[in-house]
Amino acid sequence: MSLTLLIDLDDTLLDNDIDTFLPKYLQAFSEEVSSFIAPEKFIELLLSGTRSMIANQRPDCTLQEVFEDNFIPMSGWDPGIFRKVSDDFYTDVFPTLRELTRPRPEAVKLVEEVMARGYRVVIATNPLFPSFAIKQRLAWADLPTERYRFELITSYETFHFVKPKPAYYAEIMARIGWPSGPVVMIGDDLQRDILASRQMGIPCFWISNNGFESYDEVDPPSVSGSIEDVLLWIDQSPEEELLPDYSAISAVLSTLKSTPAALDSMCRDLPVEIGGQRPEDDRWSITEIFCHLCDVDREVNLPRIQMILKEKNPFISGVDTDPWAEERNYVSENSSQALQKFIQTRIDLIDLLETMRQEDWHRDFRHAIFGPTKLLELVSIIASHDRLHIRQVREVLEDFSIHL
Fold first, then answer.
1. Cα–Cα distance between 242 and 253 in angstroms, integer?
2. Which of 189, 254, 153 is nearest to 12 (CA)?
């Protein structure tokens, strides 16, 4: 079985009590920068920047950019100085916080076993820290990245959404190419790890010593236990029960949000000559994919949704958009500009969908190909179309040996 495991870091792979760790972290960081800014003021601005990351909805701004756009103007620091001081802190001081944590041998055993089976492992930690700090915490967990090849480690340099937003989990799935096999999330935090991943339709295992005794929600997670129980649960579960289900409204919306975010991370530094170059088998270039996604959103998806919301049971004709690539000479476009046009058009689409009432998702319409159906099914088709082209982009990047 081909399986992808998303695994939380703190208090799942690493013993790290956040109520103890966070105050010590803030104290150490504020003392390190005290020659530049008063510790109390620094902590206030640091927490403000963190709140801005948590609130971010923009798929074209990484969490690092969101944090710095908030923190730097308020602090008055030169960006270069702040980044130098921050790098020095994470290099010289952050490692001293290791004594507040403890590795979990049973977690190391789990990672080694699943990797020996050929499963893919994503470190699904809340991406509020830089990659260097997260890799240090993995080393504290006796899971150094030099020894263990993780499929992806979420960090603030390349991610746009945070836990507990289901869009965070959609962004993970997009970044790893929307794998077709089983996917499981493993974590200790009920809200951030379990309920949020379930909103995305991902099966999950709740690491909880108290199990359901500590659960007071209406719809409890399907399984709970210690980290030693994870493999037994996987082995005893039919494969179809571990397959994600992206059909819920929350999952569909999150998928649409994740597409521009993932493309922003994967392609923002794409060389112009690569963007417009087709692979040898004559598949579309990256630029053509961007243009296609943009025009389909702008000229097909948005007008259709607007019509369904305005009219009673309207008829929608089919549109063949593939010929547009040649007819409109997409390959001649600038890849960076094409990506930005798509991102803005997709933001408009998401804004429209997020204004809809619950009952609007079930509005009826008639389609020339699918016959009588509902708006949710149409948007689900858009999400499936996204997943197809995300995989296509990854394939082209891999063909040109672009590191993902």
1. 21
2. 189
CA dist., res. 235 & res. 168, Å (int): 27
Rounded Cα distance between 29 and 92, Å, is 11
pLDDT score recorded for residue 132: 96
pLDDT beneath 70, residues of the chain: 209-222, 404
Q: How far is CA 354 from CA 159, 293, 350, in A?
A: 22, 20, 6
The distance of Cα 73 from the centroid of its chain, to the nearest Å, equals 27
The overall pTM is greater than 0.90: yes
Q: In this predicted model, what pLDDT tens digit does every residue of 226-236 receive, in sequence order? A: 999 999 999 99
Given this model, what pLDDT does residue 275 score? Answer: 86
Q: In what order do the strands lie in the sheet with 371-374?
A: 315-316, 364-367, 371-374
- What local confidence, expressed as pLDDT, does residue 292 receive? 98
Residue 373 phi, psi dihedral angles, 5° rounding = -155, -170
Distance CA 323, CA 333 (A): 16
pLDDT in tens, 99-127: 999 999 999 999 999 999 999 999 999 99
pLDDT of residue 220: 55
d(CA 334, CA 270): 11
